[in-house]
């Protein structure tokens, strides 16, 4: 992932680390945590991530946390799509569901059909992600030291549903 990101964003600094415990020794005006937050599956992991964000925000700085779902907004879904180009193509099917509504996780099963020259192969991938209530997001951010609030967010993609993001400001 780092090599791909370096090729796409050569002007950016790239540092390998885990958002639960990386310590850069620097303060920033803002910390942005997007789709990777979905892989925090326990409150302990989420709390550690909020602590990391807090430790990297200057006083008065902010954190923007954008989970894919909150417990309240989660709906099972199936998505599909793909594209073709010269000599190759891709089709995918994504099935997102919550097999156990009593735990803090949901599952996204993905199947990819990859067409490369005259060959088609199938790749299966499963992602188990965290699913927390709005109240838990706010509680864990506040517990991490932020003054927090939730805000609605409409993604720019037309098929996207309304989501919620969480804003935190580090007190002085």
Outline:
With 172 residues, the protein is α+β, with helices and mostly antiparallel strands.
Give structural notes:
The protein has 172 residues and is α+β, with helices and mostly antiparallel strands. The protein has two domains: 17-71 and 131-170, Vaccinia Virus protein VP39 (Rossmann fold, 3-Layer(aba) Sandwich), CATH 3.40.50.150; 77-128, S-adenosyl-L-methionine-dependent methyltransferases. It is 18% helix and 44% strand. It is built from three helices and eight strands; from the N terminus they run H-E-H-E-E-E-E-E-H-E-E. Helix 2 (43-56) crosses helix 3 (134-143). The longest helix has 14 residues, at 43-56. The two termini are 35 Å apart.
Write the layout of secondary structure elements.
Layout lengths: L1 H7 L19 E6 L9 H14 E9 L11 E9 L2 E10 L7 E12 L2 E12 L3 H10 L2 E9 L7 E9 L2
Parallel strand pairs: 1-2
Antiparallel strand pairs: 2-8, 3-4, 4-5, 5-6, 7-8
Helix pairs in contact: 2-3
